[in-house]
Amino acid sequence: IWTVLIVACMVGMFWVRDDYAYVWLGLILLSAGNIFAEFANVSYYAMLKQVSTPTTVGRVSGIGWAAGYVGGIFLLLLLFVGLIGPEVGWFGATSEGGLRYRIVALFAAAWFAVSAIPLFLSVPEVPAQSAGRRVGFLESYKVLVRDVVNLWRTDRNATFFLGASALFRDGLAAVFTFGAVIAVSVYGLTSSEVLIFGVAANVVAAAGAFTGGLIEDRVGPKPIILVSLVGLTLTAIALIFVYDTTAFWMLGLALCLWVGPAQSSARAFLAHVSPPGREGQMFGLYATSGRAVSFLAPTLIGVFSLIGGDRTGIVGIAVVLVLGIIALFFVKSPARPTRTVK
Fold it and tell me: Least packed by Cβ within 10 Å: which of 34, 167, 276, 329?
């Protein structure tokens, strides 16, 4: 259902022309698409146990996250070569009326829809549980509070992890969200250089996620997350004192190297601690807790940028990551599954 709605929002973007009269249509479609994507991710993440074993959760999560980066890179390059870069792109598309970018939206919709088909055909479905009593909008928040209170009483370690991950995931999101802004405003990268850096960043992040997933199955997810967060923090601090473009490339890619494994292992950690049959509920709380503090990194980046300029905005990202590291020290590693020898 969510996939169909996301694709519909993407297709709808084709009718958004580069005219101010269409701004609200574009904003509504983008907002709705992001909301549907959040809902879809809850179920998608909850399926992790269905396609892995207790001893391969990290590896499967890492491969999945890395594949996402690689797929995004391939589509980006394909569309840049065929539609965005040339003066006249495929199907005679030009910038008139924003046509080249509107066609990009159609390609993205088709890519997303076709890529989802193997998942629906191949992944075995688990039996549905009782839907329970239907509640209204306001009542749903009461249910959410009861779920959190019940989780606190029955599994405080999982509750601590939800809080810690909400903090450091906000820092991880800020790396990609504000990375391009900082690259242009602080280090003077051109739009084409930002695109090339984005491709390189995704390649490095994919390699980090894949490698981290392989190591995680041997050492557990918490060490991978901690090492990644420390690496991110130290690299972010080093970027504050860098003025050379070459040095920015080196440290910027190093920053992205740590993002992939932190994201992948955080998902795997929650899969390990989720009670059987309650994966959807746990990843729903995972998404909710993340959104609850999503204002933190942007606010701190804005505050530090006002104090010392765009360069010091990086401090805001580092502060959020440090808070996540501190919170993670109160979280116990999930029980390690025993490997059977055949």
Answer: 276
pLDDT of residue 133: 65
pLDDT at 173: 84
Q: Which residues of the chain have pLDDT under 70?
A: 129-133, 135-138, 140-141, 336-342
**Among 321, 289, 303, residue whose Cα is nearest residue 174:** 321
Cβ-based burial of 65 (10 A; exposed 0-12, middle 13-18, buried ≥19)? buried
User: Using CA atoms, how far apart are residues 253 and 200, in angstroms rounded to an integer?
Assistant: 7
Q: What's the residue count for the chain?
A: 342
d(CA 305, CA 302): 5
Q: Whole-angstrom Cα distance, residue 18 to residue 271?
A: 43
Query: What letter would DSSP give residue 331?
Result: S
Q: CA quadruple 308, 311, 315, 320: dihedral positive or negative?
A: positive
pLDDT of res. 132: 61
Give the whole-angstrom CA distance, residue 330 versus residue 164.
9
Q: Which helix (H) or strand (E) holds 192?
A: helix 191-219
Residue 341 pLDDT: 44
pTM to 2 decimals?
Answer: 0.82
Q: What is the distance between the alpha carbons of residues 244 and 93, in angstroms, rounded to a whole number?
A: 38
What is d(CA 148, CA 126) in angstroms, rounded to the nearest whole number?
24
